[in-house]
Amino acid sequence: MLKTLAGAVVCAALVLTAACGHSSAKSPDDPYLTLDHAGAQRHYLVHRPAAPAQGRPAAVLVFHGGGGSAAQMAETSGFNRSADANGFIAVYPEGIDRSWNDGRGADTRAGAAGVDDVGFVAALIDHLIAAYDVDPARIYATGMSNGGMLTQYLGCRLSGRLAAIAPVAGSLAVANEPDCTLAQPLPVLQIHGTADRIVPYEGGVVRVTSGNRGGAGTQPVLSVAATQQLWRAKNNCPPPVSSQLPARTDDGTSVTMDASRCPGNVDVVLYTITNGGHTWPGSEGRLPEVVVGPVSHQIDAAETIWNFFAVH
């Protein structure tokens, strides 16, 4: 049993959100594309819906977690299904060395290498507008874990290019707080589990990092409460109103929604998954629960996130 547990921990350290021992082959209909940026070839997947919505399409950028990939995120997040149902384009960027520079410095491989992921995302947005006629007023970002922390960072750096963000299991790095400024108000939906064993709900260092070969990091993240307070302050929001979501199933988790309705059709919303782990709600949960904590099936993250994006 100890040997099995040790193997699970090693697997999770290497691939936080990828499926250990599972294929991550992409759909043959979704092209794996390249974009030259800062002297490097960057990669991303594009999923175009079979029945696009009328007019210029929206685009959702979906960022994988540390150790993950574009193909893995496309398979596990549910956004291909949501794109087909709602007519938007789902875009899955891929990080250097399967990681993102989310502002935590050497805690990630991309951060240690000084990768300009903010610049890459800005260039990718420009490319999507030119190549796919994407509506520049309806470009959104979401991500899991390291990808969720990058999503928070993008909110601080690219608020003028993004219509809304929705980080999952990833709070804002403490180092990013002092110079986090908004070019325009930014709707924010955050999803985080209280039993997250990788990115603590109460803040602190991330417990598994690519930059430290699977060991704990050194650069802390804000607590979920402090992250929410930051976004409420930036958007001039009133205190949130709390409500309990009805249970869909008996899986040991529950969901509380704290919502602030802010000026200018801007909302800052938190879904707290009580007893939820470092997982994507509604997914298969392929990593061992002992490592990442429980998966909640009280909400479908992709469905919840798109419903939020669609009204902003």
List keywords for this structure.
single chain, disordered N terminus, 9 helices, 10-stranded mixed β-sheet, Esterase_phb, AB_hydrolase_fold, Rossmann fold, 312 residues, alpha/beta
What does this 3D model show about the protein?
The N and C termini lie far apart (48 Å). The protein has a 10-stranded mixed beta sheet, sandwiched between helices. The chain has a single domain (42-310), classed as Rossmann fold, CATH 3.40.50. It has helices spanning 2-14, 70-77, 79-86, 109-112, 117-132, 146-157, 224-234, 289-292, 301-310; strands spanning 32-37, 40-47, 59-63, 89-94, 139-144, 164-168, 188-193, 241-244, 254-262, 266-274. Mean pLDDT is 91; it is low at 1-26. It is 28% helix and 21% strand. It contains 9 helices and 10 strands. It is of the alpha/beta class and 312 residues long.
Quick gist of this model?
The chain has 312 residues and is α/β, with parallel strands linked by helices. It has helices spanning 2-14, 70-77, 79-86, 109-112, 117-132, 146-157, 224-234, 289-292, 301-310, and strands at 32-37, 40-47, 59-63, 89-94, 139-144, 164-168, 188-193, 241-244, 254-262, 266-274. The radius of gyration is 18 Å and the shape is globular.
Largest sheet entry? 10 strands, mixed
Number of strands: 10
Unreliable spans are 1-26
Our count of helices gives 9
Beta percentage is: 15-25%
Architecture, according to CATH? 3-Layer(aba) Sandwich
Determine the fraction of residues in helical runs and give it as a percent range.
Answer: 25-40%
Number of domains: 1
Would you list the SSEs in sequence order as H and E?
Answer: HEEEHHEHHEHEEHEEEHH
Distance between the termini: 48 Å
* Highest-level CATH class: Alpha Beta
